[in-house]
Amino acid sequence: MEVSALQPHYLLKIDATEVILSNERVDQCVPSWVFPALLDTSFVVVRRGVVTENRIPIGIRGRERSQRWAAWCPANAIQQIVTPVDLLQRVINTKDLPVSPASRRLRSLATDWQWLTHRWGPGGSVGFELATGKPTRTQRSDLDIVVYAKEHLSISDAQRLLVATRDIGMPVDIRVETAVCGFSLAEYASSFNRSVLLRTSTGPILGDDPWTADLRSLSVRTGA
User: Fold this and answer.
1) What's this model's pTM, rounded to 2 decimal places?
2) 155 is in which domain, residue-wise?
């Protein structure tokens, strides 16, 4: 896979020694948990930002929900790429995979969402746990879902996706990723005649078309 094809929420197994831990803020030191966490799993998540061969924006997860650290790695540090779509297929197709509440609900959604043509799969703590085999999610964790919608997703289809999650038995947080931004499916589904928060590689903005080619032309901006 070309580096340019990496998208937010992809998981990377990497050579931990190649990671650039600095977050470019002179007022912050790297927390003591960061490098041990990195060595423990060697998996990081691609975060939103400008991707180059020498500098891929990544996030490092610790054991606690508050333990998150922004970093970078070069392309030559990548040993494996695991996408949310890969993880969904693993849940659906691997019969001897331990049956957890999250995997049961993913299988249920896969049945209810058979009509959806966009690629999707688990992100967040569920995705990280599936990729690494390390217990990550807690009883308070949402079921995070990522939908990769390169083409337009209608508001009515967004509402249809949400309906299928109502009786799933746990909170579900669905993020949609287009070629230019990410946004909340729930916010978009209720966005008739109003803008939604669009997360771009240059920061969050308000807009009403997550598929527009040039989001920088929008004049309404929010704080970081």
Assistant:
1) 0.89
2) 84-217
